[in-house]
């Protein structure tokens, strides 16, 4: 089972935790309903859609309201330091949270108390905090876009806003930026770099490049990066290896985008609807059986 | 921070928003560079508006400069401007903000929710309702989009 940690863009939304479902295009958790537009709700919606197709249990959410003041994020960080150490999640995804090095490090320390370390994914503000704290290598996967990759590559930048000018965010320089991120130990064990071409890498270099189908409008649509992370989180919950899961997620997201016939004005909900069909096709094309089909006795830990 | 900058600029102070020095950096922070000799005066103005800084510190080392490069892309009738990690897209025919993407701080989904679907004239600016560095980057993209629309 996987847990997803993030903020909701509603100022006074309480700290909630529990299984997440998707009803009438709204995220449902503990009796609350949250509209899906982008950010953590989009990630959750993609994880639910992909998980339903894969026959997985619902993802578990830890959510709080935060509109950028950081109060909600700090409440959630504090809660996680007390409860995450006792959890049994196989994969934990840290998403939109106010980057805070102190609290980030305390949450990682709480996870160290566990006998078996979960697989960790960070995206958005949580990825910024991981890099700022110099602890990127504790994570199994980061999912940056090109601008965020430039930030990972700049050993001095505390935030993408301060990436130095000589580190240009250009698509044709991605291999160089990846190399630089690993050289300065600011990359996770694996990276899924989202862009015109999606790159999947580890410290040994680029492992896969996905560049089809191409929908130019996808870059402009808020939440399309969040949906990739949601799909990859569901795939990792099946026990799939990171490189394979990242490749399938990137292909699925592109294909779902293609089916939505997007323009730059398309909203992410229109793409989410196509995830199950796209995932089915990508899995068929890759001719991969999902792990629990090979071994039906395998139970997914709750 | 974004509000403090607005207050001080409105009072005519020539201040700069910069990145904090490593010794006081804790996360998604911004600093405002002020002449230290004017500290009391400036603090009084900020206090009046209820936006007191967490700390006032003298620094000797150079502060980080925000990115100042914009990437502009036309996709049909739409214009997308990227500043740092934030992208703002408008429909040039109607001047409507159609999408906000990128970023990782928690005000990004909030800003998108408040801005998307409104024209550039109707939408609140990130300077008014944003709080973080991502919000600040979106403000730069918003200013660039506005500048290009006015041309």
Can you describe this structure?
The complex is a heterodimer of chains A (302) and B (151). With 302 residues, chain A is of the alpha/beta class. Chain A is built from eleven helices and twelve strands. In chain A, α4 links the parallel β8 and β9. Chain B is an alpha+beta fold and 151 residues long. Chain B folds into two domains: 2-48, no CATH class; 70-150, Enolase-like, domain 1 (2-Layer Sandwich). Chain B has helices spanning 2-10, 39-48, 107-115, 126-129, 133-150, and strands spanning 16-18, 31-33, 70-75, 78-83, 86-91, 96-102. The two termini of chain B are 30 Å apart.
**Euclidean distance between termini CA atoms of chain A:** 6 Å
What is the gyration radius of chain A calculated from CA atoms? 18 Å
Q: pLDDT average of chain B, as an integer?
A: 86
* CATH topology group of chain A: UDP-N-acetylmuramoyl-L-alanine:D-glutamate ligase
Low-confidence stretches of chain B: none
CATH architecture annotation of chain A? 3-Layer(aba) Sandwich
What assembly state would you assign to the polypeptide chains in this entry? heterodimer
Question: How would you sum up the major sheet of chain B?
Answer: 4 strands, antiparallel
Number of helices of chain A: 11
Number of domains of chain B: 2
User: Which CATH class of chain A is shown?
Assistant: Alpha Beta
The tally of helices of chain B reads 5
């Amino acid at each position: 089972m996987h847990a997803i940690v993030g903020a909701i863009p509603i100022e006074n939304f309480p700290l909630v935790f529990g299984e997440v479902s998707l009803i009438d295009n709204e995220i449902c958790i503990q009796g609350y309903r949250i509209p899906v537009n982008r950010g953590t709700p989009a990630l959750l919606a993609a994880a639910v859609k992909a998980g339903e197709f894969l026959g997985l249990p619902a993802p578990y959410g830890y959510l709080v309201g935060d509109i950028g003041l950081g109060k909600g994020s700090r409440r959630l960080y504090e809660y996680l330091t007390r409860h995450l150490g006792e959890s049994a999640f196989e994969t934990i995804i840290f998403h939109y949270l106010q980057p805070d090095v102190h609290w980030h490090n305390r949450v990682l320390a709480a996870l160290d108390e566990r006998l078996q370390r979960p697989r960790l994914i960070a995206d958005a503000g949580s990825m910024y905090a991981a890099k700022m704290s110099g602890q990127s290598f504790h994570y199994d996967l980061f999912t940056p876009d090109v601008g965020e990759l430039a930030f990972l590559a700049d050993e001095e930048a505390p935030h993408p806003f301060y990436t130095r000018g000589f580190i240009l965010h250009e698509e044709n320089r991605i291999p160089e930026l990846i190399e630089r991120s690993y050289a300065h130990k600011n990359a996770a064990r694996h990276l899924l770099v989202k862009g015109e071409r999606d790159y999947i890498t580890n410290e040994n270099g680029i492992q896969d490049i996905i560049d089809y189908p191409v929908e130019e409008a996808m870059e402009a649509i808020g939440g399309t990066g969040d949906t990739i992370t949601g799909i990859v989180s569901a795939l990792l919950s099946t026990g799939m290896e990171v490189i394979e899961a990242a490749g399938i997620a990137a292909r699925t997201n592109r294909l779902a985008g293609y089916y939505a016939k997007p323009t730059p004005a398309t909203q992410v909900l229109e793409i989410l609807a196509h995830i199950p069909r796209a995932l089915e096709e990508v899995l068929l094309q890759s001719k991969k059986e999902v792990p629990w089909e090979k071994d039906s006795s395998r139970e997914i830990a709750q | 921070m974004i509000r403090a900058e607005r207050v001080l600029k409105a009072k005519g102070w020539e201040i700069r928003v910069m990145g904090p020095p490593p010794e006081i950096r804790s996360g998604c922070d911004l600093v405002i560079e002020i002449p230290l000799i004017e500290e009391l005066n400036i603090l009084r103005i900020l206090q009046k508006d209820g936006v007191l800084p967490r700390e006032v510190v003298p620094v000797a080392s150079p502060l980080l400069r925000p990115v100042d490069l914009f990437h502009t892309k036309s996709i049909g009738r739409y214009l997308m401007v990227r500043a740092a990690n934030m992208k703002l897209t408008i429909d040039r025919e109607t001047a409507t903000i159609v999408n906000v993407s990128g970023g990782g701080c928690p005000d990004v989904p909030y800003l998108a929710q408040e801005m998307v679907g409104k024209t550039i004239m109707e939408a609140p600016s990130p300077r008014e309702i944003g709080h973080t560095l991502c919000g600040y980057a979106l403000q730069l993209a918003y200013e660039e989009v506005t500048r290009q629309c006015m041309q």
